[in-house]
Amino acid sequence: MTGADHDDDDAYVEVLKRARKSPAVLKIRLAKLRSNFPDMLVFAFEGDDDKSVFFQWIRRIRPELEYEPFPCRGKQQVIRLKKMLDQDLGGLGHGVYYFVDRDFDDLPADQVGDPTIFVTDKFSVENYLVTEKVLNETLKNEFHCNAAPEARARVADLFKKTYSEFLDITGEVNKRIFIGVRAKKKFAAHFPDSLTSLANVQLLQVLPTQISAASIVLYEEEPSPEETEEHGAAFLQLSPPDRYRGKFATMYFSKWLMCLAAERVDNDSALFKEAEQNKPAKVGELNLGNLASKSALPVGLAEFIQAVNPDFMAA
């Protein structure tokens, strides 16, 4: 096979990937779902991670509420599907509710105030999971530090220190993403899906890598100096724990909890000296859904879910 053949195959694969995410294909999938569940609420999420996180949150608000999750492979796909269904004269969009992350681009102006779409007040669902509250509940349960408040306080202080270091180190990466999104620039590569290029996360400290933010976040076309200045100033107004990229935060948290688990099995650990010994941490149970069960709810979610009408067919 020639190089040209490989290029053709790659292009074909990309076409197939884009087709699976198109609103027309999503609408067909929804129509098939509706044929099986005509009276069921449908909750459209960005992806599978959001589906599991919102499941935990929703059942805390209305445990009796039944719905069919409908992942859409991204925020823009959710919004495009909604716009298409808003124009559907057959009522396919009845009983469909939409859930999206705020991200760096917020919600499109024409969707603000729509009672069927919920947007997080933080960057994404992941930002609610990397908090001192979630850590404290994790220490009580998966790390067996119940009845050891001194140990939990010591670990919490270390978390605050290392998470602050991580946010400082990844600030420039977040800034380049923010500027690119706000200036509507296309990115030349996907954002990192591992910690390797972002930071060196250890139990006691987080260290920078030797890779520059400009090498990590690549634009097809660089923003103008005016765009960089304008959007850079807006970026400085963000709260890092709440408004920096959530997937980076959970990368940090996952690695740091693994380091913490290694420390937990050391019976001579000064960090856990008040906790019961020979109690390995159950870090394998700490998926996003588990963390969401311990987290605070997004602002406005309880009110949004309480307003959902399960009898939409009769309305």
In short:
By secondary structure, the protein is α/β, with parallel strands linked by helices. Helix content is 47%, strand content 8%.
Structural write-up:
The protein has 315 residues and is an alpha/beta fold. The protein has two domains: 3-121 and 299-314, no CATH class; 127-292, no CATH class. It has 13 helices and six strands. The chain has helices at 3-20, 23-36, 48-61, 75-86, 132-140, 149-169, 171-182, 213-216, 225-235, 240-243, 246-264, 288-292, 301-306, and strands at residues 41-45, 67-71, 96-100, 117-119, 199-201, 206-208. The strands form two sheets. A four-stranded parallel beta sheet has the order 2-1-3-4. Strands 5-6 form a two-stranded antiparallel sheet. The longest helix has 21 residues, at 149-169. The protein is globular.
Tag the structure with descriptive keywords.
alpha/beta, 4-stranded parallel sheet, 6 strands, 8% strand, globular
Order of helices and strands: HHEHEHEEHHHEEHHHHHH
Task: Give the spatial strand order of the biggest sheet.
Answer: 2-1-3-4
User: What class, by secondary structure content?
Assistant: alpha/beta
Percent of sequence in beta strands:
5-15%
Spatial gap, N to C terminus: 59 Å
Question: How many runs of DSSP E, i.e. beta strands?
Answer: 6
Low-confidence stretches: 11-16
- The percent of residues in helical segments reads 40-55%
Mean pLDDT: 93
Largest sheet: 4 strands, parallel
Domain count: the total is: 2
Based on CA atoms alone, the radius of gyration comes out at: 22 Å
**Number of DSSP helices?**
13
